């Protein structure tokens, strides 16, 4: 349609301007609507669930920290000595020192009856701490729903005691890691301030099913979606960003027990800290890690550097040996030979099929 000059011409351009104005206005409204509870907080509003009231960060056991590169904090259940032992054997203190890494296990207190049942007494933990000098213990009881205390404690301790460190890596003790690869990734990414690096979990919703381990009541978390957050299996950030997270977490009015979601989701969003997603080096299936070990003779690098141990604490030791060997001896896999393509679930294996079919999604073989 031909638009003549004059009145219709003016109306046409007015409509265009109004259209852009409305569009822009909507965008800015969307941006502004993200929650900023942080600014509304004042100390008289902090309720009983808050981290400050318990004083969980009085260290029952403490130690020092003198690294200028990376602090590696590992949340560890106090009674699970074997997971700590496997990690210590996998990455010895002297090797960590060479790599510029200080590793610390984060423990809490064991109930008397747990101490009696497991024979991991507080005295045994004190002995372990004296021997290895790599334990800090918080002033709260070991419990699933106290994991947020432990997580905050780890970040807080690092910012208090590792003043010269550049980065902090938080990990769960049942996670297998290729530390060399992580260090390469950290150095390549040269993570700036206000970035957290790890496996980003997006658009997750609270589980409202009471029988589920992850059941979250509306009282604990009211909205239908969580902010995006990082898997607590393993993530890395700068010490400066960790300090910001701790500062906000400590005055945040509502404590939320899912620790990675609380710190790298809710608190991170308050601060406007952004993600660096490295999910491609994570696997959720420990059998893929075992497949990598079996392919050692083929000198294939593993596609994954982080994964669960699947209850096999020794996998950490074996995977580290493999990773160290592969550092200089292996080459990357092509797509065709990727771990996910070559590590086949057993029921696809033509050799299987005599007698009763043993169908298990965890039975994987190297082709
Ligand atoms: C803090 O909150 C309390 C209770 O909501 C309110 O009475 C008080 O005025 C607030 N103080 C400041 C400094 O905003
Ligand atoms: C940090 O580095 C300085 C200078 O190298 C050193 O004097 C200090 O002891 C270090 N601090 C820690 C906690 O390692
Ligand atoms: C644990 O053992 C100690 C010493 O044997 C005993 O005094 C205490 O009552 C026990 N506690 C529990 C909760 O079983
Ligand atoms: C968490 O730790 C506190 C402080 O020790 C304790 O009172 C509480 O019972 C613990 N929480 C759970 C769920 O055990």
From TrEMBL:
Its main location: Golgi. GO terms for biological process: protein O-linked glycosylation. Keywords: Glycoprotein, Glycosyltransferase, Golgi apparatus, Membrane, Signal-anchor, Transferase, Transmembrane, Transmembrane helix. It is found in: Golgi apparatus membrane. Signal peptide: none annotated. GO terms for cellular component: Golgi membrane. It is a single-pass type II membrane protein. The keyword Glycoprotein applies. The chain crosses the membrane at residues 6-24. Its EC number is 2.4.1.-. One of its GO terms (molecular function) is hexosyltransferase activity. It comes from the Eukaryota. InterPro entries: Glyco_trans_31. Belongs to the glycosyltransferase 31 family. This is Hexosyltransferase. The lineage of its organism: Eukaryota, Metazoa, Ecdysozoa, Arthropoda, Hexapoda. The gene is LOC107218214.
